[in-house]
């Protein structure tokens, strides 16, 4: 066992505070990772505050983890001590269902084991995430990380990155296509970078002129203000794919009108009702689809990490110390970050 | 010009009454069809009563038309006098947009011309439908009809038939697949027959045990009562395709739970809001899709007619005289028909 240190929420109303806990001793296939950086996902806040119900306390959030391997089990093949390593939203799955066998562990039919606020498959012990100094994970659920990239800005790739990369790949985004990314936040800013790197013509679709300008800096070819009815009309029936990263309920009918016939809008942000409801006619006239997509499997996450190394893609981040996490959550609520907070875990060793 | 006779609604509150009007003289590519049978689609009722707005009066409804060719223009190639002929929901389109060029006239980007309650592209004159004795249509929008089938039961294929056949083909339904047809009415009963003939294992999903029994008579392999939570749970994540024919707003989340990963539910019935709204998680967990589909193009409609002749598929119909149309509408409102009313247009010549 390892004595680990991190920050935890102890109930839905409390701030995160220092917390000591145990990590398991590494098994045959486990790697032990000293955590260097941990991204702050909006879902950390939702789960710490039990917005979705079922939260397990104490909770150590964090599923955008970058670190260095300090120890490996005797059966580990992919990693050696000193390697850089990444851990995302899942740390285990059943490994034998059709989803797991197709490298789509995120859709494990027997329930995946999430990196925090979940339970270990064998012991039922709670899982603790990346707002900590050390983590022990089966090597299958750990990805290799290139040393060519700015490491602190790599962390958000493990959730915000793969959540946008995977649907862009699944719906075969590429050259000659016009792709819209709806909403510019942690997910949307990665969507713009990936869609552009895949060769598409990228349009940032936003309600905010300021965000539109920023999107062009990030690589967007054009900006469409969804609040401008004339502009929305001018872009009607013209998009080959829409990546909808908006994290709150909103009217998707105006976006469906932007799609070409037989095309898809993939939802990756809204985990609640699509309210106001879409209209049947928005789908029927043009044989359009609304789909969902969840993070990505381990094979694809590694593919994304390699793609990022090749194309020099990282997140735009704002670094914080772990002591600033509660203040960062308040800023997240106000959507006041460009575009991802990342915790420098070295700060854990500083006096609080 | 032809003097035509039919039944028309004169305003949203009135019953349909006898109505005389003019049909155009046949142009180069037109066929003149003596109408034998006209199916009664639920949308006839909605448009006669202006439920969707924009109705044009007087309105002669009817877009499930079977008849015999009595005259052809000099440029007509497909038909000769005496041939059987079918006309469905559209009688014209722009003929040059990408949809028209791909034989998907139903998605014409410049607006298709519907068989009734529309306007002719050249003159702007109102289009009048099948509740009449004669119709003049460009041969491109007329399909050939086999004399092997029971003609009166063929009429509903032109709308209820193609509306269900097209999505089953588009999403490649076939042997080895488990397909659910949701809702047993004019559309649903055709969906069951087609999916079965295409080789799928067909499950009728209904709220009504009596309809479930009837579905098995129509060819369904199994029945799933959507009101039975245990049964719904037993079928979770097991369907390769769902054809949702329910014509009124309803909660689609329980149906999305039935789909396997990466599969689609196609909506063909609801032309209003999908209320209560679907949940983002219903789509995201399993990368599922909700799509829409509208009728079919002329090429596919002909393919369906040929498929029906080959597989001996027609609708289950209840014959009425045109004089019974208002009473039939009342029964439609109560969903009291198995499964399609068809008007014997010979009744037009009887004293009312």
Automatic annotation (TrEMBL), chains A, B:
<dbReference type="InterPro" id="IPR002328">
    <property type="entry name" value="ADH_Zn_CS"/>
</dbReference>
<comment type="similarity">
    <text>Belongs to the zinc-containing alcohol dehydrogenase family.</text>
</comment>
<dbReference type="InterPro" id="IPR013154">
    <property type="entry name" value="ADH-like_N"/>
</dbReference>
<dbReference type="InterPro" id="IPR011032">
    <property type="entry name" value="GroES-like_sf"/>
</dbReference>
<dbReference type="InterPro" id="IPR036291">
    <property type="entry name" value="NAD(P)-bd_dom_sf"/>
</dbReference>
<feature type="domain" description="Enoyl reductase (ER)">
    <location>
        <begin position="9"/>
        <end position="343"/>
    </location>
</feature>
<keyword id="KW-0862">Zinc</keyword>
<dbReference type="InterPro" id="IPR029752">
    <property type="entry name" value="D-isomer_DH_CS1"/>
</dbReference>
<dbReference type="GO" id="GO:0008106">
    <property type="term" value="F:alcohol dehydrogenase (NADP+) activity"/>
</dbReference>
<dbReference type="Pfam" id="PF08240">
    <property type="entry name" value="ADH_N"/>
</dbReference>
<dbReference type="InterPro" id="IPR047109">
    <property type="entry name" value="CAD-like"/>
</dbReference>
<keyword id="KW-0560">Oxidoreductase</keyword>
<dbReference type="GO" id="GO:0008270">
    <property type="term" value="F:zinc ion binding"/>
</dbReference>
<dbReference type="Pfam" id="PF00107">
    <property type="entry name" value="ADH_zinc_N"/>
</dbReference>
<dbReference type="InterPro" id="IPR013149">
    <property type="entry name" value="ADH-like_C"/>
</dbReference>
<dbReference type="InterPro" id="IPR020843">
    <property type="entry name" value="ER"/>
</dbReference>
<protein>
    <submittedName>
        <fullName>Alcohol dehydrogenase catalytic domain-containing protein</fullName>
    </submittedName>
</protein>
<keyword id="KW-0479">Metal-binding</keyword>
């Amino acid at each position: 066992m390892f004595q680990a240190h991190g920050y935890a929420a102890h109930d839905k109303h409390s701030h995160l505070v220092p917390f000591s806990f145990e990590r398991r001793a590494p098994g045959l296939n486990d790697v032990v990772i000293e955590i260097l950086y941990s991204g702050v996902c909006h879902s950390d806040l939702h789960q710490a505050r039990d917005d979705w119900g079922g939260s397990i306390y104490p909770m150590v959030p964090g599923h955008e983890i970058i670190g260095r391997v300090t120890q490996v089990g005797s059966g580990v093949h992919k990693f050696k001590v000193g390697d850089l390593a990444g851990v995302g939203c899942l740390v285990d799955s059943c490994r034998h269902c059709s989803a797991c066998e197709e490298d789509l562990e995120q859709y494990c039919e027997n329930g995946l084991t999430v990196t925090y606020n979940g339970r270990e498959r064998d012991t039922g012990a709670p899982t603790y995430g990346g707002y900590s100094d050390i983590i022990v994970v089966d090597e299958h659920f750990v990805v290799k990380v290139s040393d060519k990239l700015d490491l602190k800005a790599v962390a958000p790739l493990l959730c915000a990155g793969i959540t946008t990369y995977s649907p862009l790949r699944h719906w075969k985004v590429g050259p000659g296509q016009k792709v819209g990314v709806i909403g510019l936040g942690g997910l949307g800013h990665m969507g713009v970078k990936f869609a552009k790197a895949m060769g598409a013509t990228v349009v940032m679709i936003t309600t905010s002129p300021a965000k539109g300008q920023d999107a062009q800096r990030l690589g967007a070819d054009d900006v469409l203000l969804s609040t401008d009815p004339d502009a929305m009309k001018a872009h009607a029936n013209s998009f080959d794919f829409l990546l909808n990263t908006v994290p709150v309920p909103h009217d998707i009918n105006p976006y469906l009108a932007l799609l070409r016939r037989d095309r898809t809008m993939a939802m990756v942000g809204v985990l609640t009702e699509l309210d106001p409801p879409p209209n049947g006619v928005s789908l029927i006239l043009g044989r359009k689809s609304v789909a969902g997509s969840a993070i990505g499997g381990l094979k694809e996450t590694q593919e994304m990490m390699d793609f990022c190394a090749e194309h020099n893609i990282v997140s735009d981040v704002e670094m914080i110390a772990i002591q600033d996490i509660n203040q960062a959550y308040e800023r997240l609520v106000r959507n006041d970050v460009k575009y991802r907070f990342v915790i420098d875990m070295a700060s854990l060793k500083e006096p609080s």
